[in-house]
Amino acid sequence: MTVSRALNNPKIVRAETVNKVMEAVRATGYIPNMLAGGLASRRSKLIAVVVPQINNNMFVDTIQAISDELAARGYHMLLCVAGDTNESEAEIVATLLSRRPDGIVLTGIHHTPELKRLLLNATIPIVEIWDLTPTPLDMLVGFSHESIGNAIGHYLLGKGHSRFGLVWTEDARAGLRKKGIYDVIQKQQGSHAREAIVPWPATLALGRQGLSDLLANGEDFDAIICSSDTLAQGVMIEAAARGLAVPKTLAVMGFGDLDFAAHCTPSITTVRVDRWKIGTDAAAMLAEKIEGKSVPSPIVDIGFSLIERESA
Amino acid sequence: MTVSRALNNPKIVRAETVNKVMEAVRATGYIPNMLAGGLASRRSKLIAVVVPQINNNMFVDTIQAISDELAARGYHMLLCVAGDTNESEAEIVATLLSRRPDGIVLTGIHHTPELKRLLLNATIPIVEIWDLTPTPLDMLVGFSHESIGNAIGHYLLGKGHSRFGLVWTEDARAGLRKKGIYDVIQKQQGSHAREAIVPWPATLALGRQGLSDLLANGEDFDAIICSSDTLAQGVMIEAAARGLAVPKTLAVMGFGDLDFAAHCTPSITTVRVDRWKIGTDAAAMLAEKIEGKSVPSPIVDIGFSLIERESA
DNA sequence: TTGTAAGCGTTATCAG
DNA sequence: CTGATAACGCTTACAA
């Protein structure tokens, strides 16, 4: 017991005793066993993070930020890939719970009813990220995809565009942004939109393909809206190959403000969200709540900004 | 005990009993406690993965592959960021060991002596990745950065280049590739090289900056070699801004074969390594060894291929 | 400031 | 095929 105290809370142990313990630790190569510690204390110092995908330009910065913030606070991160369906997420979280994490980060706000029950039953702090709702399971850090869609719609209508093509992936959150766009442009007389749906995750090749598909029927577009900057860049590459001037003939709009968006030629008009802040805030809120501090605002809308550049 | 068996190895329990157990599990909302299980069985079903950085175009595909392979085999992944110094890695792995992972994936082959001792003492399976050595701590999946450097050097000399500029980050593995390049080009009469060192991780802006720095002294180059495709793209953007024709005036060479490399204009000549295979193999080898199967070849060189495109 | 006893929720082992 | 018992290595709660 004295060793346990010397290691975890040396202040309450006589300095001389602490030294003796440390010496013994060195001499024997002792490594604490957090499985045993977690079992006894019911605190695992483990945070489970569930994302649809790791190698994704969007989530990866958030994951990095979570990891950094957690490490600084003495937690480890259990990272799980859930794919893009609620069912796979539910299955994965169920097994995750057997690790007795002190908290969970979930991507998105849509979960199966069973998962919700499971999670609320477990009574551990939860942060949902990358989306927005007034009724999260527990806490939330994100932004409104519909608002972003609205902003994109207004922006492009304001520029006088009316013949829209969407190059879009079908993941849950992209769907919300699309809805936001349609809500705005369908109110505008004479505007219309066509879609090229591409698989998720997005690549440049899929962007090129998307534009090709849109143009295949001989239809005419004045603005292409993409569900990510990667697709937008692909669209611009295809446009260049076809001799379509961007933005003169064809405006192109992205989402994400990835590194290359500012440096492409033409640079990509897009929507920026602070992906790092999502992670930092989520981790911090979780840690605070775990440690019994009150979290004043459990719902954080980090907002977004539309970045006007050359492509639209 | 019967419950434990019914859950973990139902075959050895009477079907009727298994059903009774499952029913009770459902009725009570029972969730197993793997902390207790791991403590008792000395198997945590946990793999620790240590990378210098998560939000890195190179490692992220490997991490995804590790995660996928581990999930398929019933393991969870503890993901830790170690930065680019051996000291921070040692510190992080030391705390990681207290989770009693069944195996560890380490990025790189250079570790502090204390860490090596710690790891060998722990006698758990280890895979080092993203580098090559005949003497890994345990197992290894990677490739030779020096060989890649050699290949780049030979390729560019073969194209008749002799005035080299390097836009380079200073991480450990990039340093090896640089050495490989110098070993080749310094043997060539009349060739010379200058370097622009940029911080890690690489961005397009740093690539642009790198080329600007190289050109600042009025020196003349016929080939720019970059430690990553991202830098190469940045260099090409800067070259375009300065009216330097790529590859006519200036050849540009990257590393990684990231998605955009094939789609840039001009497309980027680069070196491809199978980042996914590194992860899949590493996870598979670890799992096999943990489960007592023999791993016939503990050192896997996944090789590389130089992809000739337009930029060089 | 340090020590004692009990227990955290599993699994290994052996017995039936 | 099922059950009893004793760990696993720590922390809580209380005592000294």
From TrEMBL, chains A, B:
SMART domains: HTH_LACI. Coiled coil: none annotated. InterPro entries: HTH_LacI, LacI/GalR-like_sensor, Lambda_DNA-bd_dom_sf, Peripla_BP_I. Pfam families: LacI, Peripla_BP_3. SUPFAM superfamilies: lambda repressor-like DNA-binding domains, Periplasmic binding protein-like I. Residues 1-41 form the HTH lacI-type domain. Keywords: DNA-binding, Transcription, Transcription regulation. This is LacI family transcriptional regulator. It comes from Samsonia erythrinae.
